[in-house]
Specification:
14% of the residues lie in helices and 28% in strands. It has 71 residues and is of the alpha+beta class. The longest helix is centred in the last third of the chain and has 10 residues. It is elongated.
Length: 71
């Protein structure tokens, strides 16, 4: 008999960006939406809560704020 294992999936949240003098994005910081700890872009799972990270649907507060104000 097979065992079924449920996996939590969380979408990382973009919390900070660093820009160069021209305005290009140099660095971004992300955190796990499940536990709130920092995660790196190359992680498949959060090392703290073991939740799988879905990098295709990143939560970007900068875009959400821009849409609320201007759109």
């Amino acid at each position: 008999m097979r065992r079924i294992r449920f996996v939590k999936v969380s979408t990382p949240e973009n919390v900070a960006r660093t820009y160069d003098s021209v305005g290009n994005i140099v660095d971004e910081d992300f955190r796990c939406a499940e536990c709130g700890m920092g995660v790196a872009r190359e992680y498949a799972c959060c090392p703290y809560c073991k939740c799988e990270l879905d990098w295709d649907k990143i939560i970007d507060p900068y875009v959400c704020t821009f849409r609320k104000i201007f759109g």
